[in-house]
Design goal:
Elements (H helix, E strand, L loop, with lengths): L5 E11 L5 E12 L4 E5 L6 H9 L6 E6 L2 E2 L10 E4 L11 H11 L4 H14 L15 H13 L5 E5 L7 H18 L2 E6 L2 H7 L2 E6 L2 E6 L1 H6 L4 H6 L4 E11 L2 E6 L2 E6 L10 E6 L5 E3 L9 E13 L3 E8 L2 E8 L12 E7 L3 E3 L2
Parallel strand pairs: 3-8, 3-9, 6-7, 7-8
Antiparallel strand pairs: 1-2, 1-4, 4-5, 9-10, 11-12, 11-14, 12-13, 14-20, 15-19, 16-17, 16-19, 17-18
Helix pairs in contact: 2-3, 2-4
The chain binds adenosine-5'-triphosphate (ATP).
Adenosine-5'-triphosphate (ATP) binds next to helix 1.
């Protein structure tokens, strides 16, 4: 199997309703997926991720723009002639065929010899630990096993590009965790270019080389899971991936990359990349709750932090974390402290010193 790149160039999809009114589901999407890369389209319901995937598969026409597999423009190529296979949420197995026959089906259509089919199916069964199930019928398999058969059926065709549309949605929470590890393991073992759609951020973070965050038909940000989490480009991305406090303020002083910004809770210092903000500019800053720490009194020798006084308004035990809401000059900040067993737990009404690292404050507008 030779992994292909996928390149979406200014891809737009418009739908017309019964009255002839046009709505834009996907707008001017540019994306390059490298050969062997695992890229996830992530976003809320209706943001256009499934429509984007279906255009790559050829199930949906493109209104404007082009899609390339390697150097080939597949815009006008029918789905069966594109070098890609889609794995669906519903598995779509043939109920009257055994596991072996389900996986062999596509190769039989290609008129491959029985010997070649047996060798290809068995090698996929080995990668996926499915040999023991080969004689079973789909109804005799669990949901997770059916999904593995669906994946085996896609992989045996050795497509240049593998597409997944929310493949784990029908599985229970525990099985989803196992399956996402398994899909990632197999994808890396086979080295296949993969485009994966989900609205589940944990799934996207744990499986992907890069994540494409979509909102209202547009790409908000493309980056590695770490980049998306630590350097969210927009307020939407910071709020959609993980949780964030948002502060609105005005830049009052700029010294190289360090700035003083006036927020309702007071003047705070933060770093900006060059040219990211100018004096007088109104900005929105995101701060992850786990980046903030609470102390009984103002810590000394804690460089690079804003230290402000606050009062604990809420303190909730969440197992791995203790989640606080702290009020600072009338503004509420969420703070997540890890491992409350070894850390001290602050109580509601307690006065605390709040430390906010300069570099945890990320301008998102
Ligand atoms: N065949 C269609 N006709 C008209 N509008 C459509 C059609 N398919 C999708 N849409 C609209 O396009 C937009 C994007 O839909 P899409 O299914 O791509 O979103 P999504 O991000 O995959 O959402 P979900 O996670 O709910 O599946 C939505 O507003 C949807 O209503």
């Amino acid at each position: 199997m030779s992994a292909k790149s996928v390149h979406l160039n200014m891809v737009t999809k418009e739908f017309k309703d019964d009255q002839g009114k046009t709505s834009t589901a996907v707008s001017q999407v540019n994306l390059k997926v490298e050969p062997g890369e695992f890229v996830t389209l992530l976003g809320p319901s209706g943001c256009g991720k499934t429509t984007t995937l279906r255009m790559v598969a050829g199930f949906e026409t493109i209104t404007t723009g082009d899609i390339f597999f390697g150097a080939d423009n597949v815009r006008d190529v029918s789905p069966s002639k594109r070098d890609c296979t889609m794995v669906f949420q519903s598995y779509a197995l043939f109920p009257h065929m055994s596991v072996y026959e389900n996986v062999a089906y596509g190769l039989r259509i290609k008129k491959m010899s029985d010997t070649d089919i047996r060798s290809k199916v068995n090698s996929i069964f080995d990668i996926m630990n499915l040999r023991d199930y080969s004689a079973r019928m789909p109804a005799q398999l669990s949901g997770g096993q059916q999904q593995r058969v669906a994946l085996a059926r896609a992989l045996v065709m050795e497509p240049g590009v593998l597409l997944f549309d929310e493949p784990l949605s029908n599985l229970d929470a525990k099985l989803r965790l196992t399956m996402r590890d398994e899909i990632r393991r197999i994808q890396q073992e086979v080295g296949i270019t993969t485009l994966y759609v989900t609205h589940d951020q944990a799934e996207a973070m744990s499986m992907s080389d890069r994540i494409v965050v979509m909102n209202q038909g547009r790409i908000e940000q493309v980056g590695t899971p770490v980049e998306i989490y630590q350097q969210p480009a927009t307020e939407f991305v910071a709020g959609f991936i993980g949780s964030a406090n948002f502060l609105r303020g005005v830049v009052v002083e700029k010294k190289n990359t360090q700035h003083a910004v006036k927020y309702p809770m007071g003047i705070l210092q933060q770093f900006f990349e060059d040219d990211q903000a100018i004096n007088g500019e109104e900005i929105v800053t995101a701060i992850r709750p786990e980046a903030i720490s609470l102390h009984i009194e103002a810590p000394i020798n804690l460089n690079g932090h804003n230290i402000v006084n606050g009062m604990v308004k809420k303190s909730v035990f969440m197992g791995q974390t203790q989640e606080y809401t702290v009020e600072i000059n009338g503004i509420n900040l969420d703070v997540h402290a890890s491992n409350p067993i070894s850390e001290r737990v602050f109580t509601v009404g307690q006065e605390v010193s709040v430390a906010i690292p300069y570099d945890a404050m990320r301008k998102v507008n």
